From TrEMBL:
Record protein name field: Sigma-54-dependent Fis family transcriptional regulator
Lineage of the species this protein comes from: Bacteria, Pseudomonadati, Pseudomonadota, Betaproteobacteria, Burkholderiales
SUPFAM superfamilies with a match to the protein in the record: GAF domain-like (SSF55781)
Domain GAF intervals: 48-172
Record InterPro entries: GAF, GAF-like_dom_sf
Length: 295
């Protein structure tokens, strides 16, 4: 069943409705945001950076939780009224059951990035909007939020949104990796890249393992490249350290060369030792348990 069908038949929504989305009260929003403290901390700089890149084209940037509630956003002050009138405001709720087909709702349902352009939207209230959105996952594989870039006015052609769509996907991946590093900080973390020069500035693989060497989490690029990471593994089953033991590299704070046991391909990596965490910080992030491999 398509999103439009569900909107009509399952949720009995009115496509002609011009009413904006439900917006939480200040107290309700504060309660939701308090639960997402670690997520907000990991995403803040990426939201600002993405908005800086696309603000000239009159886009706003929104971050929602896993239920479609907007918990953070970036807009130009002079356009605040226009965005608010269109429903693009902090505390707005974008689930499919409430708003029908829209960018955030489609990501919540399909767990995949999408552009919902103008009349793709179910409700008449949103048919002037263009929205590009992408999912953000926790280390355990569960959805934790959606990143969305929306404009009130845009060209009619869907192709006009290709660049924004790619920027949203890239920014969502950066937020996901930032959240990964925060939520697995109590473990050893391997930052890896096939090119030695990108290890520090742009690591592609993130792998967390405990004091015994058991891998507890890995990011999506690492899992896509190494399907073995989807099952419980010891770090020594994945990598052969050609220069020195992995933990020695962390203590020396140096980049080392590794070899993938499955393929023999080289990987360059830097390791970070576990950080001490307060009880409050540990409770705010969703870390992957050692017994479960993220999918």
């Amino acid at each position: 069943m398509s999103s439009w069908q569900r909107s009509l038949e399952r949720y009995a929504l009115d496509p002609a409705s011009s009413i904006g989305p439900r917006v939480l009260t200040a107290a309700e929003l504060r309660e939701v945001r308090d639960k997402e403290e670690a997520f907000l901390r990991a995403s803040g700089q990426c939201l600002t950076r993405l908005h800086d890149m696309i603000r000239v084209a009159d886009y706003c940037v929104m971050l929602t939780d896993a239920h479609g509630v907007t918990i953070d956003y970036r807009i130009d002050r002079e356009r605040r009224h226009d965005f608010r009138h269109a429903g693009l405001h902090i505390g707005s709720c974008w689930s499919e059951s409430e708003e029908g087909t829209c960018g955030v709702a489609s990501v919540l349902t399909d767990l995949a990035p999408i552009t919902v352009h103008k009349t793709d939207h179910f409700r008449a209230a949103f048919t002037t909007l263009t929205c590009s959105a992408a999912p953000i996952f926790a280390p355990g594989g569960e959805l934790i939020g959606v990143l969305d870039a929306s404009a009130v006015q845009s060209p009619d052609g869907r192709d006009s949104q290709r660049l924004v769509y790619q920027l949203v996907r890239q920014s969502a991946a950066l937020i996901e990796d930032g959240y990964f590093v925060h939520s697995t900080a109590q473990h050893w973390i391997l930052f890896g890249h096939p090119n030695r020069h990108y290890v520090e500035a742009q690591p592609e693989w993130l792998i967390a393992f405990d004091e015994c060497g058991n891998i507890v989490a890995s990011n999506r690029p690492a899992r896509d490249a190494l399907p073995a990471l989807r099952e419980p593994r010891h770090i020594d089953e994945i990598f052969d350290a050609t220069e020195m033991p992995l933990r020695d590299a962390a203590r020396l704070d140096t980049i080392i060369a590794l070899r993938l046991r499955a393929t023999g391909a080289p990987l360059y990596a830097r390791l970070r030792a576990p950080l001490r965490r307060t009880g409050r910080e540990t409770g705010t992030a969703r870390a992957a348990p050692a017994s479960r491999r993220p999918g």
